[in-house]
Structure to design on (348 residues):
């Protein structure tokens, strides 16, 4: 039976460290509040005019390809997951193809926010298992810092997010290892609860809960109106408590789904790599599943929430630290805007 294995993994973390105290200089917040509610101590920001979601993804990809022992010429498909693309369109997939100087291979963009890497992994897994591709390059990258509201009004969102990228090269294997299964879910009934609706093509049909309706757009009206700018309605919106409540239910549910599919228990896991949404969410998931500290990987303290990039960054870091060895059972899980959530269970 053909399975998909992670043949190489890499990460790229931008150099600029932004501490909680740095944020107190531009908004009304405190190191104590941020650490207590989220666990975050600092995050990294990309260098404006130098780094983008695409360039950071490409840097992570170079490391992943080198570790997999492949070159750009060997890659036969690109998948790029992000919620902070360089352009509204085209997506980062083609920009990465150009940046890395790759052949005219297919490039697919995944827009599943925090679950983007898990969704992308699942798509890649199907392509590999059917024999369609032999070397898929999957990048997940984010530059939140270019689009956050740094005034006090945006503090509940802005303190959480950070920049970074992770990448993997996926290959087929006949060995008893690799991705065992992936499990994907969504519930769009609360899509706006964690969203960035503008600029968007909804033409005023939708608005976020507790926010004034967006003005209805006539044909030929501007894509971004002065009213949107005046109301600062061009930033990510989040009802934090609503996200929190749903996340602590769906994370354990989808992790258990992955485990029970293979008649496994949480105690069988070498490592759980949860999407780094909030340290309190990870801790509640750990408690619910009765996992030991050494079974859960957390690095949100250093990087904040890097949405699609958080799982591959945490996976890469755990691997670099020697916490993952061949044959180990690993579960990756994510939950985020959409809502979308998912898990992947694999033997390293
Ligand atoms: C965002 C989050 C940290 C907020 O924590 P919370 O305990 O739920 O706090 P609330 O949103 O209820 O706000 C509590 C108070 O803190 C204030 N506050 C919000 N952000 C703040 C900040 N950065 N600094 C200081 N005070 C802040 C609020 O204004 C509110 O003040 P009020 O009581 O005077 O109105 C928390 O809801 C959370 O982590 N949710 C999940 C978010 C998440 O994981 N998102 C990513 C999903 S992928």
């Amino acid at each position: 039976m053909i399975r998909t294995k992670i043949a190489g993994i890499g990460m790229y973390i931008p150099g600029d460290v932004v501490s909680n105290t740095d944020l107190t200089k531009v908004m009304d917040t405190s190191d104590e509040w941020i650490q207590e509610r989220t666990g975050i101590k600092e995050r990294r920001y990309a260098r404006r005019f130098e780094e983008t979601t695409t360039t950071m993804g490409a840097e992570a990809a170079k490391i992943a390809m080198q570790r997999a022992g492949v070159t750009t010429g060997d890659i036969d498909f690109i998948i790029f997951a992000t919620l902070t693309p360089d352009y509204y369109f085209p997506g980062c997939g083609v920009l990465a193809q150009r940046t890395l100087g790759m052949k005219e291979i297919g490039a697919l963009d995944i827009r599943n926010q925090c679950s983007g890497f898990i969704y992308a992994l699942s798509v890649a897994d199907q392509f590999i298992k059917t024999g369609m591709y032999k070397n898929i390059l999957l990048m997940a990258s984010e530059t939140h810092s270019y689009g956050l509201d740094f005034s006090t009004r945006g503090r509940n969102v802005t303190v959480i997010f950070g920049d970074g990228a992770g990448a993997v090269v996926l290959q087929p294997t006949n060995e008893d290892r690799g991705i065992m299964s992936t499990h994907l879910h969504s519930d769009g009934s609360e899509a706006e609860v964690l969203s960035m609706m503008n600029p968007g093509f909804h033409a005023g049909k939708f608005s976020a809960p507790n926010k004034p309706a967006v003005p209805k757009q006539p044909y030929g009206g501007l894509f971004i109106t002065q009213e949107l700018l005046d109301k600062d309605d061009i930033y990510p919106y989040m009802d934090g408590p609503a996200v929190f409540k749903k996340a602590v239910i769906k994370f354990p549910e989808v992790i258990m789904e992955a485990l029970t599919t293979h008649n496994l228990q949480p105690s069988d896991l070498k490592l759980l790599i949860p999407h780094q949404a909030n340290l309190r969410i990870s801790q509640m998931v750990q408690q619910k599943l009765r996992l030991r500290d050494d079974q859960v990987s957390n690095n949100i303290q250093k990087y904040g929430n890097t949405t699609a990039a958080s799982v591959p960054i945490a996976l890469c870091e755990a691997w670099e630290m020697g916490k993952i060895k061949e044959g180990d059972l690993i579960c990756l899980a994510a939950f985020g805007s959409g809502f979308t959530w998912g898990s992947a269970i694999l033997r390293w």
Q: What stands out?
A: Residues 112 and 312 are 15 Å apart (CA to CA).
